Write the structure tokens for this entry.
Amino acid sequence: MSKLRAHLLGVLVLLTGLLTTTGAQPASALPDDLWFDPAAAETLTVQNGRFTDGLGREVVLRGYNVSGETKLKENNGLPFASVADAKKSATALRALGGGNSVRFLLSWAYAEPTRGQVDPAYLAAATGQIRAFLDAGIRVYPDFHQDLYSRWLFDSDSWYTGDGAPKWAVDLGDYPDEYCGICPFWGQNITSNAAVTQATYDFWHNEYGLQDAFLDTAQKTMTYVKQNLTATQFAGVVGFDPWNEPHAGTYDSGQTSRAWEKDVLWPFYVKFRARMDAAGWQAKPAFVEPNLFWNANIDFQKQEGGLLDSTLGSRYVFNTHFYDQKAISGVFMWGKAEDGQYVGDFGTIRDRATATGTTAIISEFGHPLAGSVSDKAPTVYKAMYQALDSRVKGANWWANPASSGPVLSGSQWQWDIYNGRHHELMNDNPNEVQTEGDAWNDEDLSAVRLDDSGKAVLRQDARMLDRVYPSATAGRSLAFTYEDRSRDGSTTLTWNPVPSSLPNVAQLVGSGQYALQVWRSDGSAEPTELHLPASFPNASTTVVSDLGTVFGPPAYTRTTPIAVAAEPGGTGSRRLLLTAADSGALHYALVTNGATAPSAAVLSAARAELSSWMAAEFN
């Protein structure tokens, strides 16, 4: 969208309060919207290898998967028991977890319990819960989720269970009795359980018309969602993830994993893309995943892939997952994650997206919060978020910021408010009632739970989860880093200290958290936005920028270059707004909560140090 058109659209929204789309209900503003927000939220597209909003600003999506509850039967394949719970979760996700987006899980089994018939009650309930997040200012990309193909492949006394395909789809095949052998991890069923591998193979080869049935249901689901959201709400639905963690099941004779992606998986995505278009989702990208083992970090699990033979372009997003299998194994990685642990892995994801002509999102990442390897979780998560922010490790960042690469979007697994309070009959077995953790295959990864009063509380360090990140950049983001000072037990982890060559900057930051954003402006009147965590109240927030220096930033106005405002949605979350209306100029902004009433002299000296540093590093 051109800057002129975007500006005119913003004025139109401001004057009329109405923005209509054919076939949709009238749009309305969100609580705490500013003058530019409706136009910014009008659409999210992929341009020049970045997510961009309706104003052409670069967007970073950060948030969580909502949620593994969809895998369970207790709430009939929905993330929440009610819309009220969805609203509670959305508010907490924004205010406590700092998220601006969610991957919203859907179930094929409950969407189409009878072949050829979608369940309107399920679609209505799912859409109502999606609406709760959209109304809180949170963008949504739905995902038809599956793991191990279907729960109905598993015996009532099995050690494991699955989710995804309906019972009727399983009944069509004469699948062997499920058995995984010596499988201490549920994921081994993907390649070792013949029932899973054969059923999965049948889906990809459209045996019994299975794939056609799924595509029909997906189109009906997308049509329903579009028709039952307002124009503003539907604008917040940013795309669709067609199929979770695809794998061949078994390969044909002589077929490689790369050939399977090219000849089987990619044609499926092309078909799904056509169904999106038919359902009125033409302007929204498909968030397509490669073979799930393409970036495995254990050599014997890794398979060639990454959609190497496909050009995605702007109508698709390169969508992948990353779990540190070495750390999770408890065998292949002794000790904990360190500074820069995953910058290489996430750099590969950046490069793969660039090569396919699009942007990337890591739609699942995480680590167990209970069990024998849970002691690694604080460092693993910190290292993963560090790698999302930059492809340069903390120790090297100040000396090489220009190599940071784009800030990656990501959705942590997961945000389940029912964690530890489930009542799931595993494989419908009344003698196998699951209550602990995520209630699914002994997993426990939720960042949140409800306390005894019913209030949502974090299970992980808020310093690590609620982060500064550039949610919208007016121009081109060149480098970003965030030192969260998150904790591993009683130890504060500092992987990116301010160098001694910048003594006044180091004095300002002290032992506090800090972020530094460098960008090149594009002439926008609309501001660059950084999410401000709850740990950055105005009374302890300092900003040092070429745009000025501020301790305790003022409320936003169009003529205030450094300001704060609430984020849209009425959740109490906040943002830092940086307005630079010039074009092609380099800008920087350091934001920290480490200073206490800094003097004008220290602020000026820190600004001089940062200006000299930027001139040297981005000449």
